[in-house]
């Protein structure tokens, strides 16, 4: 039976999200608009100082090419800096453990991982990276990669609401405002709460202590709380320590656990309502929110059911192996569902040890394109691509050139939306196949059969979905996996951002058709149903064969008493 | 026209030709135009080649052979769908074309007549046409007047008048002169005439894809790429699963992989896509509308605002007298009698209608003019007035009757110094009635005799029967109608209300049309407009969909992107419907096609994986996915492939006729189509595949 206490937590979690997202989302719209807000007296000056010192003209309007170029340059710059400081970390300060320089493929992988908001971790934080790299390198990227996601969302939104214009806004301004007014204050507050719960925040070197049994144990420390706050809020997910939020110093109490889970979905869910505010339609936002929530809850139910159903091998239900023993099974699957729905990737349990069907849910969440809330900004712009496809098919069905928010959707938008959906899926399937066909890929496997296949499929799904969680059981710190997953992450990030920007650039030029009785409504349940249908069908048709040979087969075999 | 509408869906001759064409269309160059079907053809080629190699080595697989046959059928069925749509469209235009190539034109060269073939004519050539001649090419009359039989194109048997100058100077190639002689200046090079454009729209080789069709093709190609990837990687994933303790050496064969691919890629819509487009043009043609491009037809489905001229479109051409309203002291009959007398010399339709009304109402017949000893003042455009002076037997003037617009009569009275106290009061009275009349959508005419105002004749526009329902339909579709009229606002209001248009522009000048269109367009609306006059040309060109009347001027016909051969202004409604139907058919079949994949997965995946982790006693665990309980793996795969091919044939009638359109709001249409084609698309293949499986098993093919 599911403990009542855990059910209550899950219910509070969902209701809390339904209440918080609309309220906070509206507020975010205000924060990002550049209008005076509660923080402007403090940060207003900082903002203009940043523009002045960086030589940015905040009133410059960018078309899509310039906006995209700025994103790419900024990201490239981030990757280079992050790689270089890892390669020379032994000569840099704040390295009390005297950790040596990072190997090249791992450095590249880590740099790409954090810049793309994936936070795939081939490294073990405490034994590989110095405090300097964690703070100046990773934490900075935690902030700006999330802010970049918001910027793309804002640009796409402007493309939808501007009538026959050209400008999508200014990337630097969007970047600075998102970081300064939203991410930094929220993270600072959250970090303090986390410290109050016992998350460490320290510059001292690791402590060596003697345990009660008389053994020596090394206790890793570090400036963790500040990074963990943004790791959750920015859907980054890269833990300070290797075991992520399953480590007591990273996630000490049930309250910290609940708040961390909540903060995973807080901004992605709220941004839906920010979007609603910007396009001037709360109803549209609720419909998108409903679709996301529906898939989320559905996944959660399947996972929970599967974890609590009788295991044929052990003849018990509710296996604790690999779960977060302190918080219980439901909190483990709630986390695993949330972290894969949002492209967060932090974990508090071992996904490899989830029941096959919960593992399937986690994997499918990622493979849907990280649009069920998804990453900060990226979740919603990914969802908007699916909305365009849905609008196109259903628009044809009512006999009109399809239009969304009054903007006609033509071949250009469809082409790029398809590219954006196609590219990450290609990376997942092709790279998995490549790994299965090469020794370099197979030698990292700890299990074989469908479970081994799931490990590889999950790894590339996580990379191309910019999720970052790992199924574990697969040694990914090899040159092959470091480079292939890095490539997957780049494709998953920029293979979606560039099409989105191109679409924004094309939409912004179009006129807005006023609605009439003949217009397809996108703010009712019929549309929500259609959107769900398209998301499921595209996702299912693409991954059903693979999933049936992975987790589904494993599930069926497990019922027959066969494990791997 | 009626015979054309009722023509059979599958004419025998067309079907035979289409079957031949299906094979001709196997030419890779032609197949490449349709990426989805091309992919099927490549798969069929690949499996055929492998099959031949195996056979040379002495391995014959009946299962593979059947797969190959059905793969080729899939390609042929798709070709057949296109060919039959093309055949029907061509048949329609073939007759016209035949006439034109055989036509001998009498070309004027240096004022001398010379006989040349019609295809040698170029723009600006002059040709002579006399009784019995076919007009060799599109052109305009520069000299003379003639009646022309346009039934070959319009299906309308009554001949029409074509004359130089004015708004009726355009002639169409293929029509026949049945009286008099005209000189025509050719306005289109061969290959450029309306007929040629029309033919090009129903021939796949020349047909340009429309914007929505391009977008849809991209979507379908994208899906095909995804499925290609799914299938290729599936083999590798499958192979890996057989490693370790459970290894066996069976792998997924190429024919099975190709079958999986062909079942998954959207072959249904891919195969029918061009048939849908062609038959859309063909349907348009059967409504006697020629479109200059497929794009225009699609745009017609998007129209938000429709601009209509009042005269001839909403109302019958001319205003008619409908009522006599006498002034105090005079009877209605007396007024009618005077009005009839005053109108005898008014040859305009309005004047004639007064004579007729008086006759109908009071049986007052036109009298013998000589007996009356009357002098008539005929209607002139300048005076806007007509009348009669009837002399008494003594020769002195007895009755001086005048009839005209209020302003004209007022002018007349003051100029003749006939105003007295009475007339002025009467005039005021008549003005009051006049206002009432105008409010009711009519135009008041005053009738005076000597110094007395006898009353008012009400002239009214007669709104065409059934137009109200048509506008109600348009409103249901979400299309706003705007009436354009030169009338004063009072009259316009009344007619607008009677006809049921949403809005109107009164006292409109020609340039107002253009302005209205631009204004609506800048608000993001798509505007449709119908016109015929030369001064309509700019507006027709500006409108997103401009339909020119065939009876209109050459300028108007060139500015529009469609021509209505029947010159029937309400035709636009049909055009809108055809445009919408075109998109709906594509969208619905796409949904159907994609929804089909779910069932196919449940047929093929368990069939392939049945050996995976199978034990001596049971099939592999993935067999639980075999929800249809198909008898054997071979039968399952074959059934899916057969279903996939047959469904193309079964849906050809739907592609040709189009999804049924009802004028309704978007939400209702969407709901219905989702249920039929979305839900239906999910369920139908489960049933279909199962039935085929049962048949295959019972006749022992697998």
Short description:
The complex is a heterodimer of chains A (564) and B (702). By secondary structure, chain A is mainly α.
In which order are the strands of the major sheet of chain B placed? 10-22-21-20-11-18-19
Number of helices of chain B: 24
Low-confidence stretches of chain A: none
| Rg value of chain B | 35 Å
Rg of chain A, rounded, reads 23 Å
- Which two chains share the most extensive interface? A-B, 68 and 79 residues
Class computed from helices, strands and strand pairing of chain B: alpha+beta
The overall pLDDT average of chain A reads: 91
Taking all residues together, what is the mean pLDDT of chain B? 83
Strand/helix succession of chain A: HHHHHHHEEHHHHHHEEHHHHH
β-sheet strand percentage of chain A: under 5%
The profile of the biggest β sheet of chain A is: 2 strands, antiparallel
Strand content of chain B: 15-25%
* Shape descriptor of chain B: elongated
Class computed from helices, strands and strand pairing of chain A = mainly alpha
Largest sheet of chain B: 7 strands, mixed
Euclidean distance between termini CA atoms of chain B: 51 Å
